[in-house]
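Anyone up for a design puzzle?
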């Protein structure tokens, strides 16, 4: 059995102290210990992107990240973006464009798209494809997801122009 470590994590704007095995992944801690369920356990090998979270603002695969490496870091999942205008717009545009089907990849796609749009509010289709390239969706064929991200970028640009 792995040695236990005590970690302080800021998960979705809430400070948490957890005791976990030293070899526990962030995904395991989030889902099994803290009951944060939007990051999904898909491939558990960092390939599918369904476990994507932001760690100190950078998109990472929670299944490949040791929880111990996140001590004193900020971890954001979809649940933590409840008042974030970009995330709210992404969620609405994913629904409108039909980008949500089975929903298994959705949280990872949203986090990856959010990371892109916080850096670039005018992405090209190619930039969106690159930003989402680590996320696998077996339902939509990606076109509807890209449409949702493009619509969000346009909506945000329009709202900023009218302000």
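Challenge accepted. My sequence:
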């Amino acid at each position: 059995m792995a040695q236990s470590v005590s970690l302080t994590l800021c998960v979705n704007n809430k400070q948490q102290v957890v005791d976990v095995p030293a070899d526990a992944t962030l995904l395991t801690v989030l889902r099994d210990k803290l009951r944060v369920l939007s990051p999904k356990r898909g491939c558990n090998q960092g390939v599918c992107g369904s476990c994507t979270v932001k760690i100190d603002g950078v998109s990472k695969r929670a299944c490949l990240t040791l929880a111990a490496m996140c001590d004193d870091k900020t971890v954001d999942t979809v649940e933590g973006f409840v008042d974030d205008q970009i995330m709210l717009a992404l969620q609405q545009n994913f629904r409108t464009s039909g980008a949500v089907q089975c929903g298994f990849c959705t949280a990872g796609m949203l986090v990856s798209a959010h990371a892109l749009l916080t850096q670039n509010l005018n992405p090209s289709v190619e930039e969106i494809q690159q930003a989402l390239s680590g996320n696998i969706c077996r339902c939509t064929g990606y076109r509807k997801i890209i449409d949702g991200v493009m619509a969000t970028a346009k909506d945000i640009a329009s709202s900023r122009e009218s302000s």
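A detail worth pointing out: Residues 143-162 form the longest helix (20 residues).
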